[in-house]
UniProtKB/TrEMBL annotation:
It comes from the Bacteria. The lineage of its organism: Bacteria, Pseudomonadati, Bacteroidota, Flavobacteriia, Flavobacteriales. The keyword Plastid does not apply. The keyword Signal applies. SUPFAM superfamilies: alpha/beta-Hydrolases. This is Peptidase S10 serine carboxypeptidase. GO terms for biological process: proteolysis. Residues 1-21 form the signal peptide. Keywords: Carboxypeptidase, Hydrolase, Protease, Signal. Coiled coil: none annotated. It holds the Pfam family Peptidase_S10. It comes from Allomuricauda ruestringensis (strain DSM 13258 / CIP 107369 / LMG 19739 / B1) (Muricauda ruestringensis).
């Protein structure tokens, strides 16, 4: 009898402990803090890492969601007012803030080889290139990404209307940032937003929303592998602008003619960019009225710059879809190339077809990132939960209407003389290609009045250029330089002066 009673008591205690732990770790307003240190650029940097959730409130003050975040704060700083704060987002939409967190700017990075490929054992190591030496960083996971969740009572329609769209996303995240900055006493700090991929329209739109609705003025916005930012390409530029990326991918795989292949990549690309704007764009504009002889001449040049045959280029009327390029470039060798990073190779069921069966690069990244981030939160940051970590969460349908985020960023810059922009692109990124990132800048600033406050940097890798160790160092150094020069001199007013 006593043995049976003891078992019942044990089971009750066990079940009670499990339930309370689950409730505690899914609470919309709870955090855990650990201390850490990392060697950056040869110097020890001590920090505290706060992990957990901060609520999203509706207009009536009711909690409707909890956003999961990780906040790294250097602990040996005397004057927090002068300490920059970097607010970091990834994209998707629907992607967790995992990629830049444990592979780019954070104090720990995942265990991968020098080029970014998975290795075992999976895990984490110190990041000697982290920007934590010069700025505090908070990584934010929007609703349904990472461990972030809306309240259970909210139905799918209400979630979609509240969280899942260009404007919805910007609106609630701006309020969340306002609350975070207030809670952590960072209103006096210089502030920067960094976003990758879909995170770029997110931070572009946030720059204006924070200014106009929350009166929060930024020092810098960093766009990593930007999307179109709502800037229309049209059918002509939309087709022509891919050529410089095709050249880069073909050069990497040694598919260009010998005279081009013998040159360095950055020697070739200016020539291809000029051809794209000056010759290819007008040629495609003429459509079926382009003379046959000129069409053949343009096809021959595209072939020279892309590694594809003149025959398939003519079959596509000079407009080569990216999906076809990924399948065609190495078709004769039985491989396709990656979308977001065309250095990666994939193997399809058939060599025939017009698009790859799968994204070779994304499967590789999920292979290394997923075990690493789950291991990291539990074993390094002491965050324990039974909730699934969503690398990609359910956020569709996503309302993409009224996306003018590139123009929002331009307007924010015009209103705020302190605000600077840095764009970072990988040459081998076929999803958000580098030349279209440059095109964004040209269209955002047609007057040229803001170009001195906008800069573009290119790297010899793909969408997540920081996975390649050499670019990890260079790209972080570029961030340090950008942050430093975006901090105004003591007493420098935010104003325009007539010359």
């Amino acid at each position: 009898m006593n043995i049976r009673l003891n078992r019942i008591i044990y089971l009750l205690l066990f079940i009670g402990t499990t339930v309370s732990a689950q409730q505690l770790n899914t609470a919309m307003d709870s955090t855990v803090t650990v201390q850490g240190k990392v060697n950056i650029k040869g110097k020890e940097v001590k920090y505290k890492a706060t992990t957990g959730k901060q609520p999203v409130w509706d207009d009536k003050g009711k909690i409707i969601a909890g956003l999961f975040f990780t906040y790294y704060q250097r602990t040996d700083v005397d004057n927090i007012a002068k300490r920059p704060l970097v607010i970091s987002f990834n994209g998707g939409p629907g992607s967790a803030s995992v990629w830049m967190h444990i592979a780019y700017t954070g104090p720990k990075i995942l265990n991968i080889d020098e080029e970014g490929y998975p290795v075992q054992p999976y895990g984490i190591k110190d990041n000697p290139n982290s920007i934590l030496d010069v700025a505090d960083i908070v990584y934010v996971n929007p609703v349904n990404t990472g461990y972030s969740r809306a309240i259970d009572e909210m139905d799918d329609k209400t979630k979609s209307e509240t969280f899942f769209g260009v404007k919805q996303d910007i609106k609630y995240l701006a309020t969340w940032i306002d609350n975070f900055v207030t809670r952590n006493n960072r209103w006096s700090s210089p502030k920067f937003l960094i976003g990758e991929s879909y995170g770029t329209p997110r931070v572009s739109g946030l720059s204006l929303e924070l200014q106009n609705s929350h009166w929060m003025y930024l020092n810098g916005v960093i766009l990593v592998s930007p999307t179109t930012l709502g800037i229309e390409r049209g059918t002509v530029a939309g087709a022509a602008n891919f050529l410089p990326y095709y050249t880069a991918a073909a050069w990497f795989h040694k598919q260009l003619p010998a005279d081009l292949q013998s040159k360095d990549l950055v020697e070739i690309l200016p020539e291809v960019e000029a051809y794209t704007i000056d010759v290819l764009t007008p040629a495609i504009s003429k459509g079926g009225y382009l003379p046959a002889s000129e069409k053949k001449r343009v096809a021959a040049t595209i072939s020279r710059y892309s590694g594809l045959s003149e025959k398939v280029i003519l079959e596509h009327n000079l407009r080569i879809p990216k999906t076809f390029f990924w399948k065609e470039l190495l078709r004769n060798e039985g491989y396709n190339i990656g979308r977001l990073d065309s250095r990666y190779l994939g193997i399809d069921e058939q060599t025939a077809g017009t698009r790859p069966d799968y994204a070779a690069e994304l499967t590789s990244w999920l292979h290394s990132f997923t075990p690493a981030i789950n291991h990291y939160f539990k074993n390094y940051l002491n965050y324990h939960t039974d909730v699934k970590y969503n690398m990609f969460g359910p956020v569709r349908p996503w309302d993409r209407s009224n996306n003018r985020t590139g123009y929002d960023l331009r307007q924010a810059m015009a209103q705020n003389p302190y605000l600077n922009v840095l764009v970072q692109s990988g040459y081998y990124d076929g999803g958000t290609d580098y030349f279209n990132a440059k095109y964004n800048m040209w269209q955002m600033d047609p007057s040229g009045r803001l170009k001195d406050r906008m800069e573009w940097k290119g790297y010899r890798s793909g969408h997540m250029m920081y996975l390649r160790n050499e670019d990890l160092q260079t790209a972080n150094d570029d961030l340090r330089e950008f942050i430093a020069k975006s901090l105004p001199a003591e007493g420098m007013p935010a104003k325009y002066s007539r010359k």
